[in-house]
C-alpha cells in the first residue's frame, strides 16, 4: 500500500486530515472482513511490540485494543496504574524511560491528563496512540463512531448528529465533534448549560437544551454516559432530575417523524441517559460500535506500523 | 571604585540632560561628573555607544525562593538574573517558607541586599502564612522595611480581610497589593477560558474570575479611601474597570506581566507548559486592551512576573504542572518589542519610574553627588537568550533559544555594576 497517514502518532482527531480518516475507514473495512473469517489473525504486526498503558480505568477500550493487537500478531504488554499513583505525574516521566529501555515500538495510552500523549510523544520515539486523555480526546472512539455511522448512511456529509449529555467533561464529545466536522456532518450538542462549554459554538457546533427538539433535528443521536466521577462540583443536582429532563426514552423516539440511529460509547447507565428499551431497540447500533471498535483499532495500529516500517527503511 | 560611562543617551525626564548624549563619572557609588565629553582616565570604562541610560528598573512581585525554595532561586541567582534583565531593585513576594509575615523575615530579606548590586524590597504578607485568615503585623513589618503588603500568589479571597488590610494601612499611606482572581470560580482551571481551552479539553479560567475581583477590590479601595495596587491584570474588562476607577479619582494602580503583553492563549495549543502562567495568557483582544491601557496610563507599569520553578514542579503533564515562568531576563525585551513605537521614555516610565512611585522609592538624579542607580539598554538590539546562559536557577521559560529584540547592556547601583556587551 502506498497510501500513508500524515502523522506518526494518533494523538487526537484534531491532528488528522480528512484523507487520514478516510484511509483509516478503508483499512478498517478490510479488517472487518478479516475478523469475521474463521481464522481471525493476520501477521501484519509480527515484529511489533505494543505496550498498553492505562493510567485510568478502562474495560472495553483496553480489551478492544488488546484484541486488535493480537489479531495483528503483535507482541503485547499491559501496564496499568491506579489513579492515585499518577496524581503527581512522576509515574509518567519514569514510565517514559522504562518504555524506552523495553524497546517498545508502539504505546497505547489512556491517561487522566489532557495532553499527556503529547507529553509522551515529545520524550520517546515510539508511536503513540491516545486511548483517552482526560477531557481532551478519545480519537479511536470517534473513529469507530463515525465508521459505524458510515455503515448506516454511506457518506456522512450533510448528515446531522446530535450529541447528548455531559459535553464539558467528555473526550468522546470533543473527538466526535472534530471527526464529524471533518467529514462534513453537522453537529449539535444537547444537555443542561452547566454541562456545555460556553465557547463550544466557536468550534462550529450548535447548542440545544431541549432533548425533543434535538431528537427531531438529528439523523443520529450519540448519547454519552453521564459521569458523576468527573465532576468535583455538582453541575446538575441529581441523576433523577437529569434522567427526567435530559434522558431519552422509547416514547420520544416513537413520536419522531423519521427513524434515527442511537449510539452510546458505553458503559450505559440504563435508566439515566437512556432507558433500556431504547438501548436494546432496533434504533440502537451500540453493539455494532463495539464490533467496529476492533476493526478500526486494527486499522490505526496497522497504518501507524506501516508508516514506521516505511520511515525506517527510507 | 571609579567607573566612567561614555556615550550614554539619557532618559530621565526630570534631568537637564534628558535626551542628550553624555559621559558620566561615578566614584564609590556616587555620580561625580556629568559632561558631554569627559576625557579622563578611570579604573573602569564602559562605552554605551549611544545606548540609553535611565534610572534603574524596578520589578514588583518577583518570586525569590529564599527562604524555603532555594533550589528554585536564591538571592545570589536572582541578583544575577535581575541585573541581566536591567533591574536594580526587586520587590519580592511574601510566598516563601516561612512566609514574609513578620519583622524577622522582612529584616532577613533586607539584610541580603546589603552591598548588593540589586536591592531587595520585601513585600510583607497581609495575613499570617499568607493563609488569608488573620491579619499579620503590618506596622511592625513596615518599620522593619516592608515596602507594601500582599498575600502574593495567594490572592486575598476574603472581602473582609481585604477591607481590614486596606483600612489598617491607610494611616501611613500604605499600599495593599492584590493579584485579582476569584479562586473559587477559577478552581481547576488550566488556562484562559475560550475557544482554545475548549478545543484542548482543558478547564478554563474565565476572564470573569479576574474581573469580579478587580471590581470588588475597587469598591473596597473606595470604601476605605486607601491605596490599592492590582498586580498583574490580564483582561480587557479589568483595564476598563481600572480606567473608570482612576477617572473617579480613587487611589488605584495596576500592572501587567510582560508575557501577557506579548503572548496569547494560542501559544498553549501544543500543551507547552512553559506558557502555563498566572494570570493566564488570554485572547488577542485582551492583549490589545492591555497594550492600550499601558499607552493611555491606565496600567501603570510592567512586571516580570518572575516565578522560578524546578523541573519536578514544571516538566509534567499539563494539568499537573504548576503555573509560572521566569521573567526577569526577558521582560525588557518583551516590553520593548511591544511598545517600541512609543519610544524609550515610555519604556522607562513603565519599567522604572511608575514602580518607584508606587513603592515610594527615590527617583535617581543625574548630577554630582547623586547615588548611582542606572540601567543601560537598547530597544532595537537583537539578542537570543540561550538556555545555558539563563542566570536564574530555574529554566522555566518558553523564550530560551528564541530571537528577541531589546537588550540590556548593563546596570550600575552604588559601587557595583554589571555589563554585557
Describe the structure.
The complex is a heterodimer of chains A (314) and B (421). The model of chain A has no long low-confidence stretch (mean pLDDT 92). Chain A has helices spanning 18-35, 60-71, 90-101, 116-123, 139-153, 171-182, 211-217, 239-246, 250-254, 276-279, 286-313, and strands spanning 49-54, 75-80, 106-111, 127-133, 160-164, 186-190, 206-208, 220-223, 261-263. Chain A has a 5-stranded parallel sheet with strand order 7-6-5-8-9. In chain A, strands 2-1-3-4 form a 4-stranded parallel sheet, with helices on both faces. By secondary structure, chain A is an alpha/beta fold. Chain B has 2 domains: 2-52 and 367-419, Urease, subunit C, domain 1 (Roll); 53-359, Alpha-Beta Barrel (TIM Barrel), CATH 3.20.20.140. Chain B has helices at residues 75-84, 103-112, 138-144, 159-169, 183-186, 195-200, 207-224, 236-247, 258-262, 284-295, 311-314, 331-339, 344-359, and strands at residues 2-11, 21-27, 30-35, 44-47, 52-55, 57-62, 87-92, 119-124, 148-150, 175-178, 191-192, 204-205, 227-230, 252-257, 301-303, 373-384, 403-413, 416-419. The mean pLDDT of chain B is 97. In chain B, the strands form 3 sheets. In chain B, strands 1, 2, 3, 4, 5, 16, 17 and 18 form an 8-stranded mixed sheet that branches. Chain B has an 8-stranded parallel sheet with strand order 6-7-8-9-10-13-14-15, with helices on both faces. Helix content of chain B is 29%, strand content 24%.
The biggest beta sheet of chain B is recorded as:
8 strands, mixed
Roughly what is the average pLDDT of chain A, rounded to an integer?
92
Helical content band of chain B: 25-40%
CATH topology term of the largest domain in chain B: TIM Barrel
Gross CATH architecture of the largest domain in chain B:
Alpha-Beta Barrel
Integer tally of domains of chain B:
2
**Major interchain interface with per-chain residue totals:** A-B, 27 and 23 residues
State the CATH class of the largest domain in chain B. Alpha Beta
Helix content of chain A: 40-55%
Q: What structural class results from the helix and strand content of chain B?
A: alpha/beta
Low-confidence stretches of chain A: none
What characteristic shape of chain B results from the CA principal axes? Answer: globular
> What gross morphology of chain A would you assign?
globular
Q: Tell me the β content of chain B.
A: 15-25%
Estimated share of beta-strand residues of chain A: 5-15%
- What Rg of chain B is obtained from the alpha carbons, in whole angstroms? 21 Å
Distance between the termini of chain A: 15 Å
Q: Low-confidence spans of chain B: pLDDT under 50, at least 5 residues? A: none
**Tally the helices of chain A: what do you get?**
11
CATH superfamily of the largest domain in chain B: Metal-dependent hydrolases
